[in-house]
Description:
The first copy, chain A, is of the alpha/beta class.
Amino acid sequence: MGLKVTIYDVAKEAKVSIATVSNVINKKGRIGEKTRRRVYDAMEKLNYEPNVLASALMGKQTKTIGLLIPDLANPFFSELARSIEDRGHELGYSIVICSTDYQEEKENKYISLLKQKRVDGFIFASGFEKQSRLEELMQEDIPIAIVARDYPNFAVNAVALDDYMGGYLAADYLIKLGHKKIGIVALDVYSNRERIRGFKDAMSEHGLKFIHDIELIEDIKQSHLDAGRNVAKKYLQYDDKPTALFACNDLLAIGAIQAARRSGLYVPNDISIVGFDNTSIASIVDPPLTTMSQPIQLMGREVMDLIISIFKGERDDHVRVTLAPTLVERDSTRTI
Amino acid sequence: MGLKVTIYDVAKEAKVSIATVSNVINKKGRIGEKTRRRVYDAMEKLNYEPNVLASALMGKQTKTIGLLIPDLANPFFSELARSIEDRGHELGYSIVICSTDYQEEKENKYISLLKQKRVDGFIFASGFEKQSRLEELMQEDIPIAIVARDYPNFAVNAVALDDYMGGYLAADYLIKLGHKKIGIVALDVYSNRERIRGFKDAMSEHGLKFIHDIELIEDIKQSHLDAGRNVAKKYLQYDDKPTALFACNDLLAIGAIQAARRSGLYVPNDISIVGFDNTSIASIVDPPLTTMSQPIQLMGREVMDLIISIFKGERDDHVRVTLAPTLVERDSTRTI
DNA sequence: TTGAAAGCGTTACCAG
DNA sequence: CTGGTAACGCTTTCAA
């Protein structure tokens, strides 16, 4: 009475062949209504659970997808992973999650491990991902999709945020609030650079430009909180200090708020700060953070749907889904 | 040149039988040094990756573990999942994560799904888990381990926090700070009740008792932030209001801080607040939260090691690992 | 409409 | 020390 009931047991119980059982399970071929009933009853009675391994061996899907993210403990990625998981389960897929810590070595190890386990495909949620690694997988005909990260000039299925637009909207908002002297707190990664580009363009359109050099944070692995604090601190030491700061993620923004407070400045009275991502902590901190919202739920859903459509062979061309960010206004900003 | 290189290809390349190849892979039997080399060379040359599915079909492990948690987007659980994932990977296991949202229905669905996929075992990180469901799995001889949740009077492998001690220590700390009138913000779940029991006992030892009735939050699925805010608000409306609040998790504590602020009270000057869990948000909020720390890293590591030891058959008795919480003092508390 | 038999890629047992 | 060969549980022709 254990795990050991196989398709043979069901066949015997229903007095049919295993082929028939297999067919009714997979709804294939034409099967008499009576036999179908008998088979279902037998499965029910024996509490039969098909062995996914065996059927996967025969070429069917494992119904499992590998998800590589930089760090599951980071709220942005855990929320994203959750939304991917949700949509995956809806569609009958399990997700195995691997945190790469932005390390190429780990990434290679996980990819190889998951390949051996015959996952049906990979979702890469930002991180290290050498382009060559992706190309290898595509060569081997393993479905992959990218989320929350863009590979410019590389044909790959991806759903990404319109980072440029996010930066543009953030700038637009701040400028409308009357801010002219604005500082940037950002990491040296592609998405952040895009956001800055959008931000800069919006400023230009209003005849504004940055009064201080932008210093990108190069060590991506360090605490974003600390990094944000440090960069903000520098800005606050200028004689001609900015009246607003645009931080390229919420953690950075919170670090900036802390830096301000430590310099005896009040947010938003003395300085406005806008973040990026709208992770759940944005509404928890004090003051609640005005931030550009990434539609995390939607992104998760979209990548999942994207990779499924690849499974189904619905596309051999490559799609790039671009989602629009929206501004969520809270209390870390004010008119000047 | 794809995924399709099998043990047969390796055998042919190395001019040996597949049995020999299998043996060198699994380091079984005695094999001549020369043939071993030839096999290794062949595997290397062909870029052979063993098919885990096939070997699992033969009774070997899938090297995959199912992890059921209430909600991956909750920082406590994402941090816990991360630590489990880390230890798992070190030991060669992949983790498939399922968020149950405290719903029995989802839980059943995931358990059945993962059984079909032949995971080697289950880790249950709190949540719904009917005891009967666990018993079923144990009957079927599927290894299971519990983490961050205790089943009193039920023989199961578990690593849990000493909740009673956590409550006791929190009370002890607050009392030493001079607080006598203390309120409780907690959920109506086993762990929280234990914490309160410890808290109460510590108070008794000092001849203290609660001046207001404790109202547990019954709707566990609602936003903890809101719930904390509401409960705290009630306390703050009493004429004889408490000078300190003990919240049974960090989110609740943050809700309490917000309630205080909205009533025009300053933390910690007007009221001290201590949380529980020491999730990463505890150090981010303002004021940084004094909280009982759960050793999340250690818990993850311990459950993983526990379930592995079950795989190895190192124990047929049941173990309960109990970890001690420690107080992390930040700025949400002060002497009275 | 149903069933027999040939795989899928491994491991395990038993000869040689 | 090495190699046949029978499983493992399922899907898929191809006949009947």
